[in-house]
């Protein structure tokens, strides 16, 4: 029987890392997101996933930087409040590892992206709810989505790298479809 899966935000995170000044890394996360998933637990190849991230929920532990990231130089969160991912395929690589491919939309630009996903397992919580956990990672070129602001450095290179690495730890609660 088909199942639906609701994200457990208290036990889930979507984080990112980007190089700063070509020598160090800045980490951040999106604090507000929703994920809808459905499919057969025994056959994830038929699963579908929709991720909606609130652009304004970006948090790098620096208020000035976060406000700049929300501005028109980057996410333009006022005009483009959401980052959205719609899955198109969920391909098993064996051993609980998968390639999740789909259409990612940022700032009105949609491109196909693929993320590596690992099924971490399932368990019943103390209240009888079935939980499923996944971790994953991937990277993208932020300039492909119109996030092109940058500043040249006197010694060469740029202030913000164009490659952004994502990691996620997700826990879902299962329910009947």
TrEMBL record:
This is YceI family protein. Residues 4-173 form the Lipid/polyisoprenoid-binding YceI-like domain. Belongs to the UPF0312 family. InterPro entries: Lipid/polyisoprenoid-bd_YceI, TTHA0802/YceI-like_sf. Pfam families: YceI. Gene3D superfamilies: Lipid/polyisoprenoid-binding, YceI-like. SMART domains: YceI. It comes from the Bacteria.
